[in-house]
Write a structure and sequence with these properties.
Distance between the termini: 54 Å
Number of helices: 9
Strand content: under 5%
Radius of gyration: 18 Å
Shape: globular
Structural class: mainly alpha
Helix content: over 70%
Largest sheet: none
Length: 179
Amino acid sequence: MEKRQADEKAAKEANDKAAAEQKTFVDNYTKACNEFEKTTPDFKVAYDFLLNSRAAELRAIGYETPETLHQALIADEFAIAQMAFERGKSPAELIYSLANQRGYKKAAAANPSGDAEKAAAEKLATIERGQAAHKSLSNTGGSSGDQEMTAEALIAMPAEEFEAWCEKNPAKARRIFGG
């Protein structure tokens, strides 16, 4: 009986430690993204570009269900962030660089017409609403459904909420992830 209690206590302590480490990692990642965005205002647009590109690749290799796609995207994002931190780099800067390598171009530089600027402003407003609703990867809640969903907001959702949203909105999910 005492051994079982000791084992349960040790397991709880290990779980608590892992949860604290994950929270610290997510907090550091979020802080790095916020800091990078101060000097690179189009970071969120680049992030969505990279996310959509990677989602299309994952679907092409067989990640067909929203759950498996969501899990794979989160694993990729965490792997990128972890690699950046291990090398003393900003994960946001690495994400931005990857988006550029995949063909991301600033909207204003690609086409300085009024329509492009308006579209970019609308997209940024949509992303900002999603960011406001989902402050971190680990502390997300449901939304009213009135806001336009973004890829970043979907990835930040808990798996159960992500799956429910994708089941309720399959056409929007395909559009967001480039399907």
